[in-house]
Amino acid sequence: MASTSDIRNGLCIRYNHDIYKIIEFLHVKPGKGPAFVRTKLKSVTTGKVIDNTFSAGHKIEDVRVETHKFQFLYNDGEYYHFMNTEDYTQIQLQEAALDRPDLMKEGEIVTVLINTEDNMPLSIEMPASVILEVTHTEPGVKGNTATNATKPATVETGAEINVPLFINEGDKIRIETEKGTYKERIKE
C-alpha cells in the first residue's frame, strides 16, 4: 500500500476495480481545510481518462510493474503488435492502451509497462520525441510571417501536426509525443 505522498506521473494504481495510470497530479494545500491531491487517471483497459481527488494521507493500492523495451512491428487495424527486444516474444495491444498511436512508425522502440502479478502488458510509454518525415503540406505563403503562423502537415504515420510555414514536404521534423506538437526541423 502506498499513500498520496507517493503519487507520481506514470504510477499504476488499482482503483474502482480497475487499473489506472496517473498521467497528471497536483498537490494542493489550501489555506483553510485539509490538503488533497488532484489527479488525472487513465484506465489501462479502456483508455478512459477520469479526474479524481484524494485526501492527503489516503491509502492507495499501487500495482507493481516492470518495464521492458519493445519494438513496434505493425498495426492490423484492430491490434498493435510489438516484439520484446531481449527474448523476441510478441504481444498485441488494443489502441486504447496507447497514448499516441498516430505518432508510432514501424521499428520504433517503446517502453511497455507489464503487471508483475499476471505478466499482462498495461500500457506503452513512447519516447519523449519522435522524428518523422512530412509527406504532405501546402506551400507557405510568402510574407505571412508577422506572427507565429502555422499550417497543417501530414507526417509518414498519417498524423496531422501544425508546423511553421517554412516546413516543406520531405523535411524531417521532431515531434513531442506527449502533446503531439512540432518541436524542430532536423537538418540532414
- The backbone outline, from C-alpha atoms, is flat
**Oligomeric state as shown:** single chain
The name of the CATH topology of the largest domain is SH3 type barrels
Structural class: mainly beta
> What is the CATH architecture assignment of the largest domain?
Roll
Mean pLDDT: 84
Give the tally of β-strands. 16
Strand order within the widest beta sheet: 1-6-2-3-4-5
Q: Could you give the distance between the termini? A: 50 Å
What is the H/E order?
EEEEEEEEEEEEEEEE
Rg for CA atoms: 20 Å
Largest sheet: 6 strands, antiparallel
Query: What is the tally of helical segments?
Result: 0
Uncertain residue ranges? none
Portion in helices:
under 10%
Strand content: over 45%
The CATH class of the largest domain is identified as Mainly Beta
- How many discrete domains? 3
Word description of this protein:
This protein has 188 residues and is mostly beta strands. It has 3 domains: 2-62, SH3 type barrels, CATH 2.30.30.30; 65-125, OB fold (Dihydrolipoamide Acetyltransferase, E2P) (Beta Barrel); 129-186, OB fold (Dihydrolipoamide Acetyltransferase, E2P) (Beta Barrel). Helix content is 0%, strand content 54%. The chain has strands at 2-3, 12-15, 18-28, 36-43, 49-55, 59-62, 65-75, 79-84, 90-94, 109-115, 121-125, 129-137, 150-155, 160-164, 172-176, 181-186. The strands form 3 sheets. It has a 6-stranded antiparallel beta sheet, with no helix packed on it. Strand 10 and strand 11 form a beta hairpin. The termini are far apart.
